[in-house]
């Protein structure tokens, strides 16, 4: 099992005052920004090749158990291909919020809601290890600092590239935006179609699952929440 080592995380890459740094250090460590686990450090050490080999071996076993001929031409490279795909689709474990932000937090007096709609999301359901995909809408009300707009999509991607459940993914994105620029509030809505629902069991093809997370003023102020939901529903498109 991989447990987070007991060391404090680095602060975000911004040039704040020492007082701000101190207030950040005293902040409760959030769900979204844990320090790297030993597994993450192993991944960062460039040990991908050994991991691909190990996963490929397991995939070969699965193909055999399915009654397949692993030597037929179409399957010969499948174990390695799937192993590389899985390593790529879970590469978000090795990323950290401060790396993703890369200093793109800017002092600004803009104080109205910032909304980025329709961010594409591709993730893997941790219960079946099959894809779920869809889109994400992220909004926040700045409190003196704004994020580079592309960073919102990068944050969503960092958490999507892990084994996930949609509910946790939604919360992690919201908490990361909160940690990144300490806004007055954050709202996140994720809408996804899950292959484990579409391909098996209830075969709910065409269904989508919607989850939301609201923090700060989005939670406490009905009008802020209403503005957010009105904004994202204006541009609503089917998956
Ligand atoms: Zn599933």
UniProtKB/TrEMBL annotation:
GO cellular component term of the entry, any: cytoplasm
Single biological process term from Gene Ontology: tetrahydrofolate biosynthetic process
InterPro entries per UniProt: GTP-CH-I_C/QueF, GTP-CH-I_N, GTP_CycHdrlase_I, GTP_CycHdrlase_I_CS, GTP_CycHdrlase_I_dom
Location of the GTP cyclohydrolase I domain: 56-232
Similarity comment text for this entry: Belongs to the GTP cyclohydrolase I family.
EC number: 3.5.4.16
Name of the protein in question: GTP cyclohydrolase 1
Species this chain originates from: Pelagomonas calceolata
GO MF term set: GTP binding; GTP cyclohydrolase I activity; zinc ion binding
Keywords: Hydrolase
Pathway terms, separated by semicolons: Cofactor biosynthesis; 7,8-dihydroneopterin triphosphate biosynthesis; 7,8-dihydroneopterin triphosphate from GTP: step 1/1
Catalysed reactions, semicolon-separated: GTP + H2O = 7,8-dihydroneopterin 3'-triphosphate + formate + H(+)
Stretches the record annotates as Disordered: 1-47
Keyword Membrane recorded: no
Source superkingdom: Eukaryota
Gene3D superfamilies with a match to the protein in the record: 1.10.286.10, 3.30.1130.10
């Amino acid at each position: 099992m991989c447990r987070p080592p007991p060391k404090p995380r680095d602060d975000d890459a911004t040039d704040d005052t020492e007082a701000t740094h101190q207030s950040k250090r005293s902040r409760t460590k959030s769900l979204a920004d844990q320090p790297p686990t030993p597994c993450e450090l192993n991944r960062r050490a460039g040990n991908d090749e050994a991991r691909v080999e190990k996963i490929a071996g397991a995939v070969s076993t699965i193909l055999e158990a399915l009654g397949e001929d692993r030597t037929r031409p179409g399957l010969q490279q499948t174990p390695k291909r799937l192993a590389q795909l899985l390593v790529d689709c879970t590469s978000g474990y090795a990323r950290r919020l401060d790396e993703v932000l890369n200093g793109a937090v800017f002092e600004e007096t803009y104080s109205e809601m910032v909304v980025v709609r329709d961010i594409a999301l591709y993730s893997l359901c941790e219960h079946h290890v099959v894809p779920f995909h869809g889109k994400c809408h992220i909004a926040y009300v700045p409190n003196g600092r704004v994020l580079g707009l592309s960073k919102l999509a990068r944050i969503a991607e960092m958490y999507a590239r892990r084994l996930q459940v949609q509910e946790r993914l939604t919360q992690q994105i919201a908490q990361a935006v909160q940690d990144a620029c300490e806004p007055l509030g954050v709202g996140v809505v994720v809408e996804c179609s899950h292959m484990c629902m579409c391909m098996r069991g209830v075969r709910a093809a065409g269904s989508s699952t919607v989850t939301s997370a609201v923090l700060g003023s989005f939670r406490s102020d009905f009008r802020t929440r209403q503005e957010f939901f009105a904004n994202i529903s204006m541009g609503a498109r089917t998956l």
